[in-house]
Amino acid sequence: MATFQAPKGTYDLIPPVSVKYLAVREAIAAPLRNSGYGYIETPGFEDVGLFARGVGESTDIVSKEMYAFETKGGDQLALRPEGTASVLRAALEASLHKKGNLPVKLWYSGSYYRYEKPQAGRYRHFSQVGAEAIGAEDPALDAELIILADQAYRSLGLSDFRILLNSLGDKECRPVYREALQSFLRGLDLDAETMRRAEINPLRVLDDKRADVQKQLVGAPVLRDYLCDACKAYHEQVRVLVTAAGVAFEDDDKLVRGLDYYTRTTFEFVHEGLGIAVGGGGRYDGLSEMIGGPALPSVGWALGVDRTVLALEKEGVELDIPASTSVFAVALGEAKATVFGLVTQLRKAGVAADMSYGGKGLKGAMKDANRSGARFAVVAGDRDLAEGVVQLKDMESGEQSAVPVTELIDTVKARLA
User: Where does this protein hold L-histidine (predicted)?
Assistant: First the structure.
């Protein structure tokens, strides 16, 4: 019988590597929880229209990469290709914008799906941690999110990345730029699909990675030259606040990101060693109205967990991850029931404990103890228990001593401390 494998472009997270992913998620989430962001979780699939309207039909994400399907009941659904539209939909559905002070601050963590050509750092199933501040137009929010993402990366030990920053204007000034850019693009030698995209959203063409397209874009109108006074002032405030926080960035006139809903501030975290973005985001003041909600200016970002892990490996950063087990117990003879009870008591006392299963002998069980990474091994046989003691072995020093059963928990906690 043939064995099954994970689908192409996906990966399984298994120990010990999975612990690194959990640590990265925790590090990214920590600054958010410390800054008023509450956790939200949305379904893995949504109505196709949510992404078509919000992310944009002209984007590769919607037109080429989205996993869309029809249910048995005839609903048109899609596996979520990104998190912002889903989070905003959930916030609107729950009327979170009506229940307290704005902005509504939310963070999330989950899996996302895009049908892309698999390669390092680009998967069909990938993991992100994201943050959204919904319902307020304030440069301080844009700056806050950029600073929090930088803080998360720095806390992990990453340093070889750049922050790119740009403004995409708003509904007042972007139409003027759009017309100028479309006029420029119509004079280029572009294929029919690219020209179709240019008519829907010409900024998408600026994001085209093909060398022959980029070569023709030299001399294209720059959005910065078309920003209205309000957008210029807003962007300058973001720049000032980020700079005041000691976070370095680079202005990038060509940064547009791959989603249609962005307005004004847009930013990206590019890792030099990988040569790809490990995270990014921006302001999306019109998205709520696009998906049927009220005007709710908002800003957010998503950071790739798998890409962050790759960046850590590229920089040779080893995370300080504590062993998952502090005490490993080994029962000899008829002592298993008693030792199992001791392990249960240790766990209840907050000590991470495991034990040897399967009736292994002392040698095999101690190999398990070594592999577990536990600081201490508790070994007990019939004679030990008859004397009311267990043997407590320090796995680092090799020292071993008899400890009364009644004092085991206190002794272990004291030595771990």
Answer: 82-84, 114, 128, 132, 257, 261-262
272 annotated binding-site participant: no
Determine the straight-line distance between the first and last CA of the chain, rounded to whole angstroms: 51
> Is 83 marked within a binding site?
yes
Which superfamily is assigned to 327-416 in CATH? Anticodon-binding domain (3.40.50.800)
Amino acid in position 407: E
Q: Is 265 known as a binding-site position?
A: no
Rounded CA-CA distance 58/43 in Å is 24
Q: Tokens 């800003």 identify what position?
A: 299
Does the annotation list 153 as a binding residue?
A: no
β-bridge mates for residue 106, sequence order: 38, 132
CATH class of the domain at 17-170+228-315: alpha beta
Residue 1 has pLDDT above 80, yes or no: no
Q: What average pLDDT does the structure give for the chain?
A: 92
Angle, to 10 degrees, between the axis of helix 305-315 and the axis of helix 139-156? 50
pLDDT digits 0-9 by tens, 360-416 = 899 999 999 999 999 999 999 999 999 999 999 999 999 999 999 999 999 999 999
Q: What angle do CA 86, 89, 95 make, to 5 degrees?
A: 140
The answer to whether the CB of 328 falls within 8 A of the CB of 377 is: yes
186 assigned to a ligand binding site: no
Instruction: Judge if 17-170+228-315 and 327-416 fold alike in CATH terms.
Output: no
CA dist 415 → 142, 215, 269, 342, 354 (Å): 46, 65, 43, 17, 17
Domain ranges for the chain, please list them: 17-170+228-315, 327-416
Per-residue pLDDT band for 163 (boundaries 50, 70, 90) equals: very high
Amino acid type, 342: L
Beta bridge partners of 109: 129
On whether 84 is known to bind a ligand per the annotation, the reply is yes
Asked if residue 103 has a cis previous peptide bond (ω within 30° of 0), the answer is yes
Instruction: Find out whether 250 is annotated in a ligand binding site.
Output: no
Neighbouring residues of 80: CB distance < 8 A, sequence distance ≥ 6: 42, 43, 44, 45, 46, 51, 86, 110, 112, 113
Is 82 known to sit in a ligand binding site?
Answer: yes
pLDDT at residue 58, rounded to an integer: 61
Distances (CA, A) of 274 to 162, 248, 250: 12, 19, 18
